[in-house]
Amino acid sequence: MKRWTVGLTQSAEMQLAAIKDRRIQDGLRTSLRRLEYEPELQGKPLIDELAGYRSVRAVGQRYRIIYRVDGEQVTVLVVTLGIRRDGDKKDVYQLAKKLIRLGLLDLE
User: Fold this and answer.
1) How far apart, in whole angstroms, are the C-alpha atoms of residue 56 and residue 73?
2) What residue ranges do the domains of the chain occupy?
3) What are the residue ranges in the chain where pLDDT is below 70?
4) How far apart are CA 106 and CA 96, in angstroms?
5) Contact, 71 vs 97, CB < 8 A?
6) Consecutive H or E run containing 48
7) Which CATH architecture has domain 5-101?
8) Entry pTM
9) Rounded to whole angstroms, how far apart are CA atoms 45 and 27?
């Protein structure tokens, strides 16, 4: 089985470091390690503004990891991670959309 390289953007690294609860951080790190194997089969593909990205649930289904798979480079780039809070401006999907609008996720 092919092993993928998982990298985090600077903002994703800061989001992970900002989580104070070590158990949650460890759970997210475990989910990130799982992305090393068949990331294109995990999670779900996103649509609209987030088309081209995927989302996988982590830590008791409450957190999300949003990432992009690059098959040519055999890499997974985690662009953001955080709590799913539907309707809240701190929702992980709202944050990802904001980063796209600001041009901070156009990393190609």
Assistant:
1) 21
2) 5-101
3) 105-108
4) 11
5) no
6) none
7) 2-Layer Sandwich (3.30)
8) 0.86
9) 22
